[in-house]
Amino acid sequence: MSDSIRVTKNVGWVEVTLNRPDRLNSFNDEMHAALRLAMQAAADDSAVRAVLLTGEGRGFCAGQDLDGRDPRKMDGPPDLGYTLTTLYNPLIRLIRGMEKPVICAVNGVAAGAGANLAFACDIVLASEEATFIQSFANVGLIPDAGGSWSLTHLLGPARAKAWAMTAEPLPAAKAESWGLIWKALPANLLMAEARAMAEKFSAAATFGLAQTKQAIHAAGGNTFDEQLDLEAELQRQCGHSPDYTEGVTAFLEKRKPNFTGQPE
Predict the structure, then answer these.
(1) Can you give the pLDDT at residue 60?
(2) CATH numeric code, 5-202
(3) What is the pLDDT of residue 9?
(4) What is d(CA 183, CA 127) in angstroms, rounded to the nearest whole number?
(5) Mean of pLDDT values over 23-47
(6) Confidence tier at 178 by pLDDT (50, 70, 90)
(7) Where are the domains of the chain?
(8) What is the DSSP annotation of 186-230?
């Protein structure tokens, strides 16, 4: 695998680190391919029950490396739609559709597509020293990598438009207060808490967590009646899972459950 991504395997979970610190972990085509490969491997491995995504150095991800999209070095304007449909969008869909929790530990600046990559994850923890920036307006672009969707759903249209259009840096503490992320933590505690969370999830009832993720993702587009029907179907599947049997049995026997995360 490319050196632009580092994968650390643990019992039941995997840590994936963006590793271009000299470029604030900004995306080039090589890192795109390596990250997609690492995340797909985690999705396909039944022994991996949680994923932690973070960045090396002082930044999480500065978005697209613009050296590779410099109009001065091209015969004509770049096809950024092609970049999205072939690189960013499949990655974002993979993360959101992964049937296991994906935690993001934002260790520093998260700008442009780097911020929206974080928002695609299920739980976002950030260093209090981190900032989030929708930097697209500074180069005449729109929020992408799911950004226009995430901002609207997480913040509402008023804040989404203002933040996207002003490109103002948003400190982690404000991102927490706005509901963009789960927690802002002291920098020296970030990775310990993120890893403890991944380890906890790796022993949890992860089939049920995957169905919880699916239900919450669907809620934004469903009517109330449609969501009730979806809950009934997903709960039926959970009730048939070994984790439900084990969880109830362990509760009644007053012992710690031994979940497998398997659907049946």
Answers:
(1) 98
(2) 3.90.226.10
(3) 97
(4) 9
(5) 96
(6) very high
(7) 5-202, 206-252
(8) -GGGHHHHHHHHHHHHHTS-HHHHHHHHHHHHHHTTS-HHHHHHH
Q: Which residue has the tokens 């969370």?
A: 197
Evaluate if pTM is beyond 0.85.
yes
Distances (CA, A) of 212 to 99, 216, 217, 248: 10, 6, 9, 18
Between CA 173 and CA 182 the distance in angstroms is 10
- Residue 2 pLDDT: 84
pLDDT at 75 exceeding the cut of 90:
no
Tokens standing for 186?
């002291």
Report how far residue 221's alpha carbon sits from residue 224's, in angstroms, rounded to the nearest whole number.
10
Q: What is the pLDDT of residue 68?
A: 73
How distant is the alpha carbon of residue 12 from its chain centre? 18
For residue 73, give Cα distances in angstroms to 29, 79, 128: 16, 14, 38
Retrieve residue 157's tokens.
Answer: 């249209």
Are 102 and 163 spatial neighbours (Cβ–Cβ below 8 Å)?
no
63 in helix, strand or coil?
coil
What pLDDT does residue 1 have?
A: 63
Mean pLDDT of 45-50: 96
Dihedral pair phi/psi, residue 61, rounded to 5°: -165, 125
Question: Which region holds residue 112: left if phi is over 0, alpha if psi is between -120 and 50, else beta?
Answer: left
